[in-house]
Amino acid sequence: MKNLKYILILSSALFAFSCNNNDDDPENGGGTVTNPVETNPANTQYKPAFAGQTRISGMTTNTEYKADIITSALTSPWGVKVLPDGRLLVTQKTTGTLRIVTTAGVVSAPITGLPAVNPANQGGLLGLCLDPDYATNKMIYWVFSEAVAGGNISAVAKGKLANDEKTIENATVIYRSSPANPSDLHYGGRILFDQTGNLVVSTGERSVLQTRPLAQSLTASLGKVVRITKDGQPAPGNPTFGGANALPEIFTYGHRNPQGLAMHPVTKEIWESEHGPRGGDEINRLKAGTNYGWPTITYGIEYSGQPIGDAIQQKDGMEQPVYYWDPVISPSGMTFYSGNRVPEWENNLFIGSLSATHIARLVIRDNKVVGEERLLAGEGQRFRDITQGADGALYAVTDQGRLYKIDKK
């Protein structure tokens, strides 16, 4: 309880400091400062590595906004991306199909032609992204769970959306994680293009004790963020690791189940959200070649309540999360806001929360979280992914099949 008391005292001090320093200053997020949004007790007495790493002061958006349900007709949507014309392309996890949804809520017939997915448990059709030249080549890239010899893997495929938008043409698997394992958990599954035109893909460590240590292995692609070309080859400029047989596609390692990737609109750095165990959900700023620690260091414990490994949270050579949650919120897809509809949200990070059923808004300054807000907490939805539309509004999908539009009133 001593360390928990320290956290609460620290958060109160930060709150008091913020209240005396321009509650409505845009540098502080342009909202009203409140007490920390998390009021439930932590699972551990672990001490944060620095002030503001957890339970930061809350923020309340001053601009009036609304959330409208565009449709409830989707089937377990997992990823959502905006098309050049403003419509939204959505992956459906369990059916292995895509849908196109207009901003008025008109849902297309299922788009077929993708490789078969293994939809068991956490598997299926997962994250997606559009080619930077999509307007001319109609190419789409996606992550899915694939059944192969030895079990299941996270795979990356690409294909062209047909002119009639009913099917994917020439779907090709360009990358497969390794090794395969019978587990149907922790696939990771997010994908995006970085500023160099290469693909950044997150993979999970597959959850089971057999594969968990592979998050630290440079000869396995589990528990990693990999960086590859459009053809699935290791991207030029990737970090070089010592030791024999290190995989050249590895960008960062030591991840548990990274289900969120987003590029900062100003710095162009890639940020990541990651599921912890019981406690220890993380937000990380990815730096090439960096070890993010799992399972050696963590702010969480086993679901049984037992410690993980040596129960340490810091170790030389391992990066600290920018922010963590205990208890968990189960962070999934995320996006930075760069629109002008709600100016106080500029460059804020929005993350879909599954178990805590809200959208987390993190106010970030100098790569540190300075405020947190919970949006749509009364909807009772598991928010799986979120993106910014062509109209500057935010669009979020939920496991229950909804697509929300979040915008200024």
**Major pleated sheet:** 4 strands, antiparallel
Number of strands: 25
Quaternary status: single chain
What distance lies between the first and last C-alpha atoms, to the nearest angstrom?
44 Å
Radius of gyration, in angstroms, nearest whole number: 20 Å
The residue ranges in which pLDDT falls below 50 over 5 or more consecutive positions are 1-28
The helix tally amounts to 2
Relative strand content: 35-45%
- Residues in helix, %: under 10%
- Mean pLDDT across the residues is 93
Coarse shape: globular
Based on helices, strands and strand pairing, what is the structural class? mainly beta
Strand order of the largest sheet: 3-25-24-23
Spell out the helices and strands N to C.
HEEEEEEEHEEEEEEEEEEEEEEEEEE
Signal peptide: 1-21
Keywords: Signal
InterPro entries: 6-blade_b-propeller_TolB-like (IPR011042), Glc/Sorbosone_DH (IPR012938), Quinoprot_gluc/sorb_DH_b-prop (IPR011041)
Domain Glucose/Sorbosone dehydrogenase: 74-404
Can you describe this structure?
Helices cover 5% and strands 36% of the residues. It has 409 residues and is mainly beta. A 4-stranded antiparallel beta sheet has the order 3-25-24-23, with no helix packed on it. Strands 7-8-9-10 form a 4-stranded antiparallel beta sheet, with no helix packed on it. A 4-stranded antiparallel beta sheet has the order 11-12-13-14, with no helix packed on it. The radius of gyration is 20 Å and the shape is globular. The model is unreliable at 1-28 (pLDDT under 50).
